[in-house]
Amino acid sequence: MADIKYDIIEEIGILSENARGWRKELNLISWNGAAAKYDLRDWAPDHEKMGKGITLNKEEAGVLAKLLVQREL
Asked: What pTM did the predictor assign?
């Protein structure tokens, strides 16, 4: 499997943390040198390991935000 390189451009926020210290985070990340995208996934405390997640470009993140506001969570 090829090495995946990432650069956390901005740590936006933490949604939750489990008993082992892993945190579900929303970050702005550049993957393999590409343009940064919004990224939501679980991270180990040192950001060395990660779980599966989802990446969204700016437009997709905006649509998601509107959908969540409409749902009045």
From this structure: 0.89
